[in-house]
Structures are given as C-alpha cells and as structure tokens.
Write a structure and sequence with these properties.
Order of helices and strands: EHEHEHEHEHEHEEE
Largest sheet: 5 strands, parallel
Distance between the termini: 46 Å
Helix content: 25-40%
C-alpha cells in the first residue's frame, strides 16, 4: 500500500476546475487547490474556488502573478505576492494558511523563496507546502499518467502536483485515479512531513536549499 496527496496548481479555470471537481467527487477524494491570486480578481473564477472549498477541498496560496519565482524578485515583491493572494482567498483559506511557491516547472531549488518571503511566511503563520512528484501534465497532457503512477509507486507517500488548466490533461484524471486505486494506493488530504518545511510559521526543516542567497532581495 502507498499514500498519495493530490494537489492542483495554477487554477482556478472556468472549464477545467469544475471537471476536476466532478471527477474527484466520483472517486470520493479530497485534494488541495493552490490558486493564483490574479485569477481570483474575476468573480466567476473566485466562485469556482469557492465551489472547491464547499466540496471539502483545501484552498491554498500560489502567489499572485505566478510569473517570477520569489527568489528572483526584489525585497518587497514576495510579501506583496503572498499577502495580496491571501486577501483574495479570504474566507476560503485553510486555517493553516497554506502556501506553495512558484517552482518554474517543478524545480526544488533556491529560486523558490527569498529571505523576505521566508520572513513573511513566518510572521504570518503560513504553512509552506512543497512537493516530491511533478509528472509534467501541463506539457504532456497524455503521457503524464504513467509517469505519475510510477512516481506514486516508488515511495510510501507522494505529494503530487497536477494542474487544473485547459491543456486536456485532466481528461485523463479519472483513469489515473482508478489505476492508483487498483494498485492499492490510498488518497489522503494531508501532506508528507518532509514536504512541509514551514508549518504555522515555524521552520521545521532546513530551508536554506530553497532560499536565494544573492540577487535582488539582498
């Protein structure tokens, strides 16, 4: 048996996110949606995020613009990105104030955060959620399924990053969920401890590998 935590980044999307929600409902699976703040400026898209929240999914913060990694921004940029998005999420927020940095393709390196970003996360009692599997659904809408299955079978607990974007990839979500079940996988909504370096504002794991040491924020 192995465990899988499902997360969806870069939404909400008016067409794709509701389809993902219907698929998750059929399988009885609860997930986390890390939303982009600028999309919540559209009332229709915020309603989609609210629908996810109402169905028991967690809503997390995935920066406002999702354009430049926080580790490459000026000193004030990261706090603005995080705070503005959290304000837009509002009452939909998980009590732990879930935050996921922009990875630029899933990279786990020192572009993820800046010193000022870490300071803001700590002072704001955020929980920083990273990942250990990124099967690339956004760039390979069909082939991601087999890679994701392989990722999940290789470890005891996988925190998987998918994307509720209009690429066509999520038309294969039902097949993926079914295969994981057939293989003995168990879906859970919480996160592997080794993917959560900051929890409720407390740094619990070495954070230096994810923090820029030079550049605009120094």
């Amino acid at each position: 048996m192995f465990d899988v935590s499902l997360t969806f980044d870069n939404g909400p999307d008016a067409g794709t996110t509701p389809t993902v929600l219907r698929t998750l409902r059929r399988h009885g699976i609860a997930a986390t949606f890390f939303v982009i703040g600028r999309k919540l400026l559209d009332p229709a898209l915020r309603a989609v995020a609210a629908h996810a929240h109402d169905e028991g999914h967690w809503v997390g913060n995935h920066t406002f613009a999702h354009s430049v990694p926080l580790g490459e921004q000026d000193a004030k940029g990261p706090a603005r990105e995080i705070a503005r998005t959290q304000e837009l999420i509002g009452a939909l927020a998980h009590p732990d104030r879930l935050f996921r940095p922009y990875g630029g393709g899933g990279h786990l390196d020192n572009r993820l955060l800046s010193p000022s970003a870490v300071e803001h996360l700590v002072q704001g009692a955020y929980t920083c959620v990273l990942w250990n599997a990124v099967p690339g659904d956004w760039k390979d809408p069909e082939g991601w399924v087999e890679r994701a299955i392989g990722d999940c079978r290789r470890r005891a607990w996988t925190l998987l990053v998918l994307h509720d974007l209009p690429t066509g990839a999520m038309t294969h979500l039902d097949r993926f969920l079914g295969r994981i079940g057939e293989l003995g996988g168990r879906f859970r909504q919480d996160f592997p401890p080794d993917c959560v370096p900051i929890r409720n504002g407390k740094v619990l794991l070495p954070i230096a590998p994810y923090v820029a040491t030079s550049g605009a924020d120094t």
